[in-house]
Amino acid sequence: MRGFSVVPLLFFPMIAWGDCTEHLQTWARDLHPTLTLASEFAVCKANPADASQVLAALPFMVNVDEDGHGDYGLDVLVADAASGKVIAHSYQNTAIASDAVRFSGLSLDTARYQVAPGLRAFGVRISHTGSSRVNPFSSETLNLYASDGSSLRQIMGHLVVSGSNGEWDGFCTGEFGETKRTLAIGKPGKNGFARLRVTEVSTGRQAVLKGEDDCEEFEAKSTTKTFSLDYDGGRYGVPKELMYQ
After folding, report:
1. What are the sequence ranges of the domains in the chain?
2. pLDDT in tens, 5-53
3. I need a surface site. Which of 116, 189, 194, 217 has the fewest CB within 10 A?
4. Which pTM value belongs to this model?
5. How far is Cα 32 from Cα 35, in angstroms, rounded to an integer?
6. φ, ψ of residue 13 in degrees (nearest 5)
């Protein structure tokens, strides 16, 4: 893959920065005083690209019922590490839907997403989990954000980086699939922004009942595909087949 640097799309645990979690409620109150913060999902961590900053992702309950179903707003922010003052933020009113497939978590991804000279993006990962036992489902999507100092904007959204699904009888027989995607950062292209290459690996397995209680599993051959994402002057376009629907 000449000319590309590969960025593994893995889970990055929260890096301790003082006690940034104490600022979550303050940020929420100052930015959206009429909304309720879904505090169990709110996250923050130090920015490894700039030690003077902290990053955070705050989900707000826009029209969520007592079962957690509805729409969540999402505010992503960059704050001063010393004072906690918000430097820049980006808010989407109905960024996350939660229904039979439930919104189940947020995490901040600070891998080296060097999308342009002097511009390093960071990611917000959104997890969803299905509630059906016989039709298991999970998905994690990645949004990328970039800051020019005074403003923060989303430059890529809704890319599914991992997903799994299946259908089985609750005992043995069934089929299951899993997809993993990794991102490679290429050389500067349009507007100085690098082309992104997504490599997708899909695997499957099948389970069948042999006899009365012998459950056998068979792995299917994996398939690999690649996709290129170009920057159009405002954001990276993500093909529909790679997006969370």
Report:
1. 5-234
2. 445 444 333 333 457 999 999 999 999 999 999 999 999 999 999 999 9
3. 217
4. 0.89
5. 6
6. -65, 155
